[in-house]
Amino acid sequence: MPADHPAKPATGIVHLGLGAFFRAFGCIYIADAMAASGGDWGIVGVSLRSPDTRDALRGQDWGYTSVALTAAGAVPRWITVLNDVLVAPEDPAAVLAAMTDPKVKIVSLTVTEKGYCHNPATGTLNRDHPDIQHDLAHALPVSAPGFLVRALQMRRAAGLPPFTVLTCDNLPENGKLLRGLVLELARLLDAGLADWIAAQGRFPSTMVDRITPATTPADIARVADMTGRPDAAPVMHEAFAQWAVEDDFVNGARPDLAAAGVELVANVTAHEHMKLRMLNGTHSALAYTGYLAGHETIADTVADPVFAAYVRRLWAEIMPAVTAPPNVSLSAYADALFDRYANPNIRHRTWQIAMDGSQKLPQRILGTLRENLDAGRAAPGLFLAVAAWMRYVSGTDEAGKPIDVRDPLATKMQAVLAAAPTPAAKAAALLALREVFPADLADRMQPPLTRAAETLWSMGSSAAIAALNKANP
């Protein structure tokens, strides 16, 4: 680590799910906020599953290099905002102790959609989830909602105010959703606790945006060459970043986020919908269709003229279902997204984005499809994207090669697909998964989705998209 690294701030934030994204995003914003206005907002990170991040950072005094991948080249920066990293399965009591420290005012989280242990189709707690079953029976939790509830329970018992819960995951109205899950779990344990959280807790919704590819061994070697020092845990990211946060914190306690460039707003819904539908929705569409066509990264995919035209038509289908935030042009936003996707220095793998699609589709694509169906607007590009997801999760690509499908419903989905002999039957089988598709939406989706599935299975991804582009310019 650099010899001149600054002194560490005291801890004011605990972050659940310390992966590459938050280290490339939230940690940098917090560091900038403290550089501008001071305050003790150092971060204790928590890994909910694996010790890998802790083990990589421990020998570096928790510092690491963030690398902005610009069109002109890579720009490194040493980040020192982390004070410790805990591994929850090794010592859940230590995690709860960190969260109940009176100096901790915020608990933030990036645990991905599946980490919320909810039913994506309904937004309610999945009470049958094994982690939730465990947390209902044991004082030492394993799930993110369990840690939040048990830590808030301990703070209440100690006469402390609650911490603000700041979710940074790609879910619509993410703060409102998480508040509902926490209250539902708390009420199953203690109705009085749920009432206290409802009255005194704060769960601001947020919109986060920065493309962060997975770090590779080649990246680690490149950073060492670039900086002249070894770093076992650098993070690579685009230069662009945007964070919109509802300014609703317990007792107003927060870093000076505005000084770091965060948009503090009264309601983040417009920002969320724009980003979830226009960025995340097209990212998923390109991930499934591009992977099936043999493209390794998003930049590779949009370099193909067939897919460049496809993503443009997707935005044309999506924008009528999006209300722009104040002073934002959706067309200009789409143009900026295309430039970000096309950056050859950002090697964001289609396979990485394709993970956990059963958890992502409801908020990224299905909400848009519902609104288009309600309005009588055709959306063949989005239906083709859903069909591509169905083809992808079958477990083999168009050449018959196996796909490493990472999804909490992978086994169930592949079983129902294997029992369905035709593309139409496969579409019907997956539409029957109530964890993903609400019954009323599934019924309305079936005819156009069946047509898309039959086209995709018979022609292949690239040819199906080329035909769509030609038929619907």
Q: Any idea what the shape is?
A: globular
How many distinct beta strands? 13
What is the CATH topology of the largest domain?
Rossmann fold
Arithmetic mean of pLDDT: 96
Terminus-to-terminus distance? 53 Å
- Low-confidence segments: none
What's the CATH H-level homologous superfamily of the largest domain?
A: NAD(P)-binding Rossmann-like Domain
Strand neighbour order, sheet with most strands:
5-2-1-6-9
Class from secondary-structure proportions = alpha/beta
Count, helices? 20
Q: Could you estimate the helical fraction of the residues in percent? A: 40-55%
Major sheet: 5 strands, parallel
The percentage of residues in β strands lies in 5-15%
Using only C-alpha atoms, the radius of gyration works out to 22 Å
Overview of the structural elements:
The structure is a single chain. The chain is of the alpha/beta class. The protein is built from 20 helices and 13 strands. It has a 5-stranded parallel β-sheet, with helices on both faces. It has a 3-stranded mixed β-sheet with strand order 4-3-11, sandwiched between helices. Strands 10-12-13 form a 3-stranded mixed β-sheet, covered by helices on one side. The chain is globular. The mean pLDDT is 96.
List the keywords.
alpha/beta, N-(1-d-carboxylethyl)-l-norvaline Dehydrogenase, domain 2, 2 domains, three-stranded mixed β-sheet, Rossmann fold, 473 residues, five-stranded parallel β-sheet
What are the SSEs and their pairings?
Blueprint: E1 11-16, H1 20-24, H2 26-37, E2 42-47, H3 52-58, E3 64-70, E4 73-79, E5 82-87, H4 92-99, E6 106-109, E7 118-119, E8 124-125, H5 130-137, H6 144-157, E9 164-167, H7 174-189, H8 191-200, E10 206-209, H9 217-227, E11 235-238, E12 242-246, E13 263-265, H10 269-292, H11 298-303, H12 305-318, H13 330-342, H14 350-354, H15 357-375, H16 380-393, H17 410-418, H18 423-431, H19 439-459, H20 461-471
Parallel strand pairs: 1-2, 1-6, 2-5, 3-11, 6-9, 12-13
Antiparallel strand pairs: 3-4, 7-8, 10-12
